Structure formats: structure tokens, C-alpha cells
Amino acid sequence: MNKSTSPISNNVVWHHATVTRERREAMNGHRGAILWFTGLSGAGKSTLAHTVEEHLHRMGCRTFVLDGDNVRHGLCGDLEFSAADRAENIRRVGEVAKLFMEAGVIVLTAFISPFCEDRNKARAMVKPGEFIEIYCQCPIDVCEQRDVKGLYKKARAGEISQFTGISSVYEPPDSPELVIKTAEMCLQDCAQKVLQMFLK
Fold first, then answer.
1. What is the pLDDT of residues 87-109, one digit of tens each?
2. Catalytic annotation, pick one of 6, 9, 46, 113
């Protein structure tokens, strides 16, 4: 089976629950949504997503962060970093994020998600306004300076193939809901910008 396409299951029928998304959101006191953070490795996606989550949690919101590295420990542990596997990685994340949102949760995803097509497919899984794309824009030289994992150094040395920004392309979003210049603003100001946009 081609991993880049959704598997087709036979003899299955969607079951409509009596506890609806609207009832879950009413109990939560807020709407469910997907905050999709994208950008180069080291651009601050995970740090910003978790900081925004902390603020939302303190406000009494139900939240969950889907983090790129964490997901590859389990749900996507069978995938490599080819274009096809990256596409499948984002497809799975999109489906999981949609389920969280249906539960009335504000789900924050922190993935490089380098290809516009894959991000657009994730956006198309939900209704307009439910997928909020946040581009963590950061110059690659700053990302390399922040390289706490040593990944850029390994990529430059040829030890990691198909590394985004070095040997594999990153396609910036054409029209994200929000652009955060993480090299120019402090973390808390970045988080406040996200919160102001989401909560308005």
C-alpha cells in the first residue's frame, strides 16, 4: 500500500455518537480547534506551542500538544524521512488532530511539515476556520545557532540525509493565519501574539 494515500476500509459505517462535539465544547467552555505550528527545525515551534498551551491551560482550556519527535516515538514510529513518509506522517497527525478537535480540545501541533501540499491536505480535513496555520519564521542561521540536538551539524557533515533546510526543501506557507518571527521577539511576546489572534 502506498503510505501517502489514505487506506480504504471496506464494510465500515461511520457511527454518530449521542455525545456531540457541540455538547463537549459546551462542557469545556470553549471551541475545539487546531493550531498548526510549522517552520524549520530550531524555529521554536515546540517551545512556542507548549508555552501557548500553558497559558490556555491556566485559563481553564482543555488542550493537548502533538509534538513531532513525540509522535515519531509511537504513532509514526514506522516512518522514515522520505517525501512519501513525511506526507504520511502529516496525514496521520492531521487525522489525530481532527479527533482531538472533535472532542472539543484545542490541539496544538508542532511539526516541521515542510510541504505546502501536506499542510493543505491537513487543513482540508476540517471546516474553514478550524485549522489555524502559524508559521514560525526564523532565518536558518539562527536555527543552526539554536541547534541543541546537533542536527544541523550532522546534516552539514552528510550524516543525516533529507534534512529540511539543508538537503531537503522547506516550503513556507503562502497565506498562514499568523506569521511569528521567532528570531525577533521574545517567547512570551510570541505566545501573546498567538493568543490574541486565537482568542479574539
1. 999 999 999 999 999 999 999 99
2. 113
